[in-house]
Structure formats: structure tokens, C-alpha cells
Design a protein that fits this description.
Layout lengths: L1 E5 L4 H13 L3 E6 L14 E5 L6 H10 L2 E4 L6 H6 L1 H21 L3 E5 L31 H19 L3 E7 L2 E2 L6 H5 L5 H10 L4 E4 L5 E3 L1 E2 H13 L2 H4 L2 E5 L5 E3 H15 L8 E4 L1 H5 L14 H7 L7 H15 L8
Parallel strand pairs: 1-2, 1-4, 2-3, 4-5, 5-6, 6-11, 7-10, 8-13
Antiparallel strand pairs: 9-12
Helix pairs in contact: 1-8, 4-5, 7-10, 10-13
Length: 342
């Protein structure tokens, strides 16, 4: 089987590439703006990488969609700060660029495995979010934070509509706060353009205060990358007709904690594995102070994973403490603060 991964150098893309090459016989074709996260795969004989831009490399993309059996478009901006500071950039990449890919997949009647997001559920009031029954509740238009969620949700609907017409086969997966190695660079975290765990880690390393938005009451179910990738490989390897039009939450409901608790665990873990203890403190700001007027937070985000358990026979394995420790350790090794023997 030939698999095309657009965004192969990203957080999910590099890990998926590595796992497919290690555990399957598939040929993997990848494209991204760079390959600095693909050191483990770049020389593999079954990996074929090209440096390119999804907005420009139209002929290469169309040729490889026509050539490959499975298309996995992982190109997206998924950092809340950018939703507020540059919503049109988010829309252009997350919606318009991916819509172009979806239309080509439909043109050549291929299989699409599409990364949706837990954010499509928005401010749903369900205790756990279900793929088929939960309402998708977004905030008002002037809160531009929702442009990411709205873009992904509309693409989900377009994909299902194409599948119902018979233009393509598809499986949609919704990651719930995946964490792990190579999530964001420390440079991105320094600028506030990373996800919460990398921003907190940057502040820990540099002795800066950890800022809890609205006191850190928001809750997230953090999922370790290896667990998520195991689910993705199962989806890719299963019969496309069995999984056609299926949607899967891929998350760890048992890892549901508040952001304030995340900060506490990260401080404790940092002090456990580093020689010098953290010298900063934990403070709080309002969401308006931290993100600007276009931001609105999501109070809870817990997945119902019944569908993944029953259809994929998948179960997350990594608990919250190990997920956080594994992620922090990988970064501290990459940044030269720890050795792999530590």
C-alpha cells in the first residue's frame, strides 16, 4: 500500500511516518516545508520525502494523490494564539488548502484519513463528547478563536458528503490534546505560539512564571502521542469499507485534568528530574489579558471513546503522569538539559 502524508514533518506526521515504516511494509510518501523532525525516517528506503508547500506544489500533490492508496493531510495551524492574532491565515491553510486536497481525493476516488479536532465540539455541555450524538456548539462570530473549529467542522461535513456520493472513502479522527516529543519547538513556545504543555515547559526551563488563564479551571484529557499513533495505524491498516464514513475520538478520558493541575504536575516532574528546582511561580491572568478580545475558552474537553474501543479494539495505555513525564523528558533531552542516560 502507498500512503501519502502531507505535513509529514509535523507533530503527528513525523511520528506516524516512523511507526508505519517500523511496523508495516507500506511505502510512505511525505511532503512538508522541512524535514528536521524526520531524522529517524529520512534515509529509510520506503520513505520518499520532498520539500514543498501545500499551497504551491499543486502538480506534485495531484500526482501523488493519483498514485497513492491512502491520503493523510496533516497540514494545519493548531495553536490558539494564532487563531486570535491571524484568523485569516488559519482559514487559508486549515480550510482552503485542505479543501483542495479533498477535491483531488474525490476526483481520483481515493481513501482519505482526515484529522479533525476535538475543538469541533466547542462548548458542548455533554459530560463526554460523542462523535454522532453531541452537538457542536461554537461561540459568537466576533470571537475569532472559533475559526479553527469552524474550518475543521465544515471540512468534516464536506468529506462525509463526498463519501455519501461515492466519490471517496473516508475515516475522520479527532485527536484530544495529544502530547509528546516534537509537539512544538521551544522557539514557538517562547513566542506563545505553542500548546500549553510546551509553553509551560519553556517557562520551567527558563525560570519564568507559569501563567494560568482564568485560573486554569479549564479541563483537558491529555493523550500520549504513542497511544494516538497506535490508533491511526489501526485505521490505516483496516479495511476501508468497514471504516468508511466513521468518525473516531482518539483520546484518553481517564487523563482529564485541569490546566492548574497540569501546571502542578509539570512543576513536580521538573523538580524530580532536574538538578536545579524551578525558580518561578504560578500566576493567573484573564483570557482577555493573555490572548486578546477575540479569545474564548472551552471549559471541558473529554472524549467518549466507545467507538474506537469497539471498532478499532483500541485502548489508550499511558496515564497522565507518565504522559507528561515522557513529553517533558523528551524535550529536555532534545534541548540538551538531560542526557538519554539520566
Amino acid at each position: 500500500m502507498k500512503i501519502l502524508i502531507l505535513g509529514a514533518n509535523g507533530f503527528i506526521g513525523n511520528a506516524l511516518t516512523r511507526k508505519l515504516l517500523e511496523t508495516t511494509d507500506n511505502e510512505v510518501y511525505g511532503m512538508d516545508l522541512s524535514n528536521n523532525k524526520l531524522e529517524h525516517s529520512i534515509a529509510h528506503p520506503r520513505f520518499h520525502f520532498v520539500e514543498g508547500d501545500v499551497n504551491i506544489s499543486n502538480e506534485w500533490i495531484e500526482y501523488h494523490i493519483r498514485k497513492c492508496d491512502v491520503i493523510v493531510p496533516l497540514v494545519a495551524i493548531a495553536t490558539p494564539n494564532v487563531y486570535v492574532t491571524d484568523p485569516l491565515k488559519v482559514f487559508q491553510l486549515d480550510f482552503e488548502s485542505n479543501l483542495k486536497v479533498i477535491k483531488l481525493v474525490a476526483k481520483y476516488h481515493k481513501r482519505l484519513i482526515f484529522p479533525s479536532t476535538s475543538e469541533t465540539y466547542g462548548m458542548c455541555e455533554d459530560e463526554k463528547f460523542n462523535e454522532y450524538t453531541s452537538n457542536l456548539v461554537l461561540g459568537p462570530i466576533h470571537k475569532c478563536r472559533w475559526i479553527y473549529s469552524a474550518s475543521k467542522q465544515l471540512l468534516d461535513r464536506v468529506i462525509i458528503a463526498h463519501a455519501e456520493k461515492g466519490d471517496l472513502t473516508c475515516t475522520i479522527f479527532r485527536p484530544f490534546n495529544w502530547v509528546g516529543s516534537k509537539l512544538d519547538s521551544m522557539e514557538e513556545a517562547q513566542l506563545g505560539n505553542g500548546r500549553v504543555i510546551t509553553i509551560f515547559l519553556y517557562n520551567l526551563i527558563h525560570g519564568k512564571d507559569i501563567v494560568l488563564v482564568n485560573g486554569g479551571k479549564q479541563r483537558r484529557a491529555f493523550t500520549y502521542l504513542d497511544d494516538g499513533i497506535d490508533a491511526l495505524v489501526k485505521i490505516i491498516e483496516m479495511d476501508s469499507t468497514i471504516l468508511n464514513e466513521k468518525i473516531f475520538n482518539i483520546g484518553s478520558p481517564d487523563n482529564d485534568i485541569s490546566i492548574a493541575k497540569l501546571a502542578d504536575i509539570m512543576v513536580d516532574t521538573y523538580n524530580e528530574i532536574m538538578d536545579e528546582p524551578y525558580k518561578g511561580k504560578i500566576t493567573t491572568k484573564s483570557e482577555g489579558e493573555f490572548y486578546g478580545k477575540g479569545y474564548e475558552d472551552i471549559p471541558i474537553r473529554v472524549p467518549d471513546i466507545t467507538e474506537a474501543r469497539t471498532k478499532l479494539l483500541w485502548e489508550p495505555k499511558c496515564d497522565i503522569h507518565q504522559s507528561i513525564k515522557n513529553t517533558m523528558t523528551a524535550y529536555l533531552i532534545d534541548e540538551g538539559y538531560l542526557t538519554s542516560e539520566s
